[in-house]
């Protein structure tokens, strides 16, 4: 399954760009959450 996904990843540039954008958004989202929780706990 991972190998097939990786082949699609190499084939389809649009998919690569979409996946990269999605990954960036997820990292941003996950980075924002702990910060908000930390600020909330400190208050």
Would you mind describing this structure in some detail?
The longest helix is centred in the middle third of the chain and has 30 residues, at 13-42. The protein has helices at 2-11, 13-42. It has 2 helices and no strands. It is mainly α and 43 residues long.
Question: What are its keywords?
Answer:
single chain, 43 residues, mainly alpha, 0% strand, elongated
Q: What's the alpha carbon Rg, rounded to whole Å? A: 16 Å
Taking the alpha carbons of the first and last residues, their distance comes to 46 Å
- Major sheet attributes: none
What is the H/E string?
HH
Mean pLDDT: 77
Helix content: over 70%
Shape assignment:
elongated
Strand tally: 0
Strand content: under 5%
Structural class by secondary-structure content: mainly alpha
- Residue stretches low in confidence (pLDDT < 50, at least 5 long) are none
Given the structure, what is the number of helices? 2
SSE topology:
Blueprint: H1 2-11, H2 13-42
Short description:
The chain is mainly alpha-helical and 43 residues long. 93% of the residues lie in helices and 0% in strands.
């Amino acid at each position: 399954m991972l190998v097939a996904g990786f082949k699609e990843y190499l084939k389809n540039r649009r998919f690569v760009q979409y996946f990269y954008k999605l990954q960036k958004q997820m990292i941003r989202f996950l980075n924002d959450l702990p910060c908000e929780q930390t600020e909330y706990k400190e208050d």
